[in-house]
Amino acid sequence: MTKNIMIVGVGGQGTLLASRIIGKTVIKEGYDVKISEVHGMSQRGGSVVTYVKFGDKVYSPIIDKGEADIILAFEKLEAMRALPFLKKGGKMIVNNQEINPMPVITGAAQYPENITEKLAEKVDLTVVDALRLAEEAGNFKSVNVVLIGVMAKNTEIAYEKWVEVIKETVPEKFLEANLKAFELGYNL
Q1: In the 3-class helix/strand/coil scheme, how is the chain assigned residue by residue?
Q2: Exposed site from 20, 21, 104, 163, fewest CB < 10 Å?
Q3: pLDDT digits over 148-163, tens only?
Q4: Is 70 exceeded by the pLDDT of residue 43?
Q5: Which domains does the chain carry?
Q6: How far is CA 124 from CA 71, 95, 117, 188, in A?
């Protein structure tokens, strides 16, 4: 049985750290794990997609359309873009933040309206004000760990195992805020 997690966001939101935390945690649970990072224009605030696949034996990290069990979306428009990858019966966890892509910034396009309402009609959706929770935890950049906390609550992996990996992965100066962010997401 293989599980497929797709993490989508915008450059600078911490998608790569999120994939490392998830990957290390499932490795500690004894699973084979493959991670693939697709950067895109991440340096310029463009789309970033990361795949985390785990199971008894995983041969490829790539997740095709209709295969993602979970999509963790750090931004609403990225959630909409990722929708075709979610499998029937899959779960989508979305940060309700809006980050304008370049066409919106330049006035060439408008940011789509009612994204979460449209997604809620189609999928099992959890919308999270992850930015507010990250700020409450002490670091607005902890949005990624808030979302991991929400996801972790829906896994069989023990809370303590996630905390252990966060302690091993997050730099010391950001650790306290990230542990609080994880707790807030987990207990949402």
Answers
A1: CCEEEEEEEECCCCHHHHHHHHHHHHHHCCCEEEEEEECCCHHHCCEEEEEEEEECCCCCCCCCCCCEEEEEECCHHHHHHHHHHEEEEEEEEEECCCCCCHHHHCCCCCCCCCHHHHHHHHCEEEEECHHHHHHHHCCHHHHHHHHHHHHHHCCCCCHHHHHHHHHHHCCHHHHHHHHHHHHHHHCC
A2: 104
A3: 999 999 899 999 999 9
A4: no
A5: 3-186 (3.40.920.10)
A6: 11, 14, 12, 16
For Cα atoms 83, 19, 157, give the angle at the middle one, nearest 5 degrees: 95
Whole-model pTM: value is 0.93
